[in-house]
Amino acid sequence: MGIYFLLTVFSGIVVVMCIFIVMYLLFGIKERSLKKSILSALIIAIFLCIIKSIIFYFITMKHGFMPRIIVAIGFLGFSLIGPLTYWYFKSNSVRTIFDFSKIQLLHFLLSIIGVTTIFSTSNLDNELYFVCNLSFLLYLSYCFFTFLDKKNKTEVSYLFWDKTIFITMSLLFLVFLVQYFMTTIQMHIIGTAISSVVISGLFFYMLKNPPNMLKALNKISPKPEQMIQIITALELDKLYRTQGINLTKFSNKINIPKYVISIVIRDRYSKSFPEVINSMRIKDITNKLKDPNLANVKVEELAFDVGFNSTSSFYAAFKKIVKITPREFQRKMLHDML
């Protein structure tokens, strides 16, 4: 039993190390960065997994059971690693949390459902952790093929550091997978110790190779010709009228990296890309609604002409920006012209 106790103590030391990593990221690197914040959250998620395993060892050895709150904490940490890994790589192309669409919050649905289920029943723990492992694998696969393939090398100057994070997360996945199938306390502690070794390696690598990539995005200065090309594509070529246009499709159309587009959009319009697209579409429609010759044209047709692909999204965007409905706006404009 002595060796397992020592492994648990070692894992406890790594828990403290995780705290130092987060402190270093948040306060040791002064530049504000979304990438830095997400990496800090990712380390905290791993911290929750390790601390759960340590408590699991001591409480189970002494009392033979695990409090549901501890199980929930461990599951929460585990379920967040996959989404946060995705957000970490996704942040290469955005500057603030507001550049993410609201649908990105669905990535945390498993965490919410899992924690709720754990508090309501103890019969589904095994199934929940199986889904977590599968989810983690899917996130790693997606990140590899989307953010770390050869086509993206020219877009991310700090790819080597990103590869280090990806390798770290992949090793953790393998450890968690083995822990899932090897359910003895001894194997659980060995797996936790291996996870702690992996995190220790990341910590010392970070000290030796400070992650300057965390502030690289803020230091990027788009070339003047790129700025002109982006603004021209939006304001003159009116690519915002393309149905289904998003940052990725827009980037492919004008052949400029997404993170450069995000910087230009944020600096010029003080909005995220989706907000700019919607505001330009609504401005286009308001001009059409002022035209007496279009008074009998269905508003929905005008919406589709400027790029909206659903009436619900159009009405929601119009009401949000103009504060009244399209027909109310049209009646008011035409009345003022009389």
What can you tell me about this protein's structure?
By secondary structure, the chain is mainly α. It has 2 domains: 2-218, Rhopdopsin 7-helix transmembrane proteins; 224-337, Homeodomain-like (Arc Repressor Mutant, subunit A), CATH 1.10.10.60. Helices cover 74% and strands 0% of the residues. The protein contains 15 helices and no strands. α3 runs parallel beside α5 and α6 packs antiparallel against α7. The radius of gyration is 25 Å and the shape is elongated. Mean pLDDT is 80; it is low at 150-157 and 213-218.
Keywords:
2 domains, mainly alpha, 338 residues, Rhopdopsin 7-helix transmembrane proteins
Fold topology:
Elements: H1 2-28, H2 34-63, H3 68-90, H4 109-120, H5 125-147, H6 159-181, H7 185-208, H8 213-219, H9 224-235, H10 247-254, H11 258-269, H12 273-289, H13 299-305, H14 311-322, H15 326-337
Q: What is the number of domains? A: 2
**Pattern of helices and strands:** HHHHHHHHHHHHHHH
| CATH architecture descriptor name of the largest domain | Up-down Bundle
Question: What class do helices, strands and sheet pairing give?
Answer: mainly alpha
Number of strands: 0
- Strand residues, percent: under 5%
Number of helices: 15
- Computed CA radius of gyration, to the nearest angstrom: 25 Å
Shape, please? elongated
Helix content range of the residues, please? over 70%
The third-level CATH topology of the largest domain is Rhopdopsin 7-helix transmembrane proteins
Span between termini: 91 Å
Name of the CATH class of the largest domain = Mainly Alpha
> Sheet with the most strands?
none
The low-pLDDT segments are: 150-157, 213-218
The overall pLDDT average reads 80
